[in-house]
């Protein structure tokens, strides 16, 4: 395997890491209207991801930087063609980050409620639009001979793209609920488990339709196997949640997201941006990649720094592994 193909898979792994980690962040944010019966309960929910949400978002930054360096033509076509959707994702991510930091600055319920709303919006919009974007990347978009996107935002809002967005929205929501159940106690924990079952049943139906569509449209043994793994893991996750095995439930939920995204990556290969109007206009690994020297430098940098990033993130999760209990929130000194 040459370096261009290797970096295609490395970038895929980076996006998988982002969707698994920031995905459950989005789910936690979307759960706020359903779980927190009072401010203490909502603080419980938010504090489950308080120490890690910004660290999880670094996966997106690294994936985007690697995409720019390894496949500049892919980066240019993607970010110029999808700029409205990506700009909306960026704006809502900023709103979400600001809300996490400013929510606790006043005791006013109206103040906190406003930022809670922005957390929900800043979680739901990216969760949906990332699915729309990646579904369109896999299914193909209209490109001209210079590999420029010739459609509009409405072009992306096709049935397959919308179904992809709904799939990621529901899968992230379920994973967020499972994470809340794993990290909290009391009423919040019980409510998260109950809601995860109902949302999981809906996600199973929607994701099954999307993955079947993907397998039929882009069939390969790898796509079929990974789609089946994603479906089985989601069922096992729901069963584990019903039995109160929260760690396993969240773990299988994470594998569901990883397998689903990896199936899309296999469906895309060896293209990076297929043209729906003319296959001759498609961007492939070969015609979109950087030169060999650039890829070699990137490979050495990844070999040195990627293990350090993984070690640091693993250490962070280990340090903040304990449950966020209601009594801890109630006894905490308010921050003004």
Automatic annotation (TrEMBL):
GO cellular component annotations of the record: cytochrome complex; plasma membrane
Gene Ontology MF terms: electron transfer activity; metal ion binding; oxidoreductase activity, acting on diphenols and related substances as donors, oxygen as acceptor
Compartment(s) where it occurs, according to its Swiss-Prot or TrEMBL record: Cell membrane
Major localisation: membrane
Highest taxon listed in the record's lineage: Bacteria
GO biological process, alphabetically ordered: aerobic electron transport chain
Topological relation to the membrane, as annotated: Multi-pass membrane protein
One Pfam family, short name: Cyt_bd_oxida_II
Keyword Coiled coil among UniProt keywords: no
Regions crossing the membrane: 6-35, 81-98, 119-140, 160-183, 195-216, 222-242, 249-268, 297-320
Keywords in alphabetical order: Cell membrane, Electron transport, Heme, Iron, Membrane, Metal-binding, Transmembrane, Transmembrane helix, Transport
InterPro entries assigned to the protein according to its UniProt record, in alphabetical order: Cyt-d_oxidase_su2
Similarity annotation: Belongs to the cytochrome ubiquinol oxidase subunit 2 family.
Protein's recorded name: Cytochrome C oxidase assembly protein
